[in-house]
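Researcher: Here's the sequence for the chain we discussed earlier.
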Amino acid sequence: MVGEGVLIECLSNPQITEVLSVSRKPTGRTHPKLKEYIVSDFLSLKENDKSLNGYDACFFCAGVSSIGMKEPEYTRITYDTTLNFAKALNPNSKLSFIYVSGTGTDSSEKGKSMWARVKGKTENDLMKLLFKRVFAFRPGFMKNIAGQKNLPKWYKYGSWMFPVFKALGIANTMQQVAQAMIYAVQNGYEKSVVEVKDITILSGRASR
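Model: Thanks. This is the structure I predict for it:
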């Protein structure tokens, strides 16, 4: 859901000249700005993959639910895959990296919640790499962008809750999330961990 929403917003943003979608299967979209790189297993990527060179930023939006997973399996998908992908980019001072984490992630890596610890470790170790900027985005509930196809099965039953979650300060639109990501890599932000309220602030700056 996040990857598709961010892709739609990036393609419509006039400041972005080219987008490379890296995924396990084609997006099903065509656009003059869009190129695709199909990778069946992100763990198979080697460091400094030439197909990933020449870009200003990476928005890493891949992820899975931890429901029904044991910690080793979840760690392989969430931590190992993300770090391997980041290293394949050849971290350098011209490239920014945004990792889409989630509200409730545990930066201390010591909490009781397995998924929160694993995501916390992922955030922490990404920030040790030599990118220009690294941000951990922690969105809460998100309202989809019109035209999105890849939505969770539960979404059509729970989307009506968006106004409630927004009033509680734990929700953003998908467009706000994407705009905040684009603004952050272009202009920076005073925090490396970006919570829901920060996403609102950043998207507000982007729209000025």
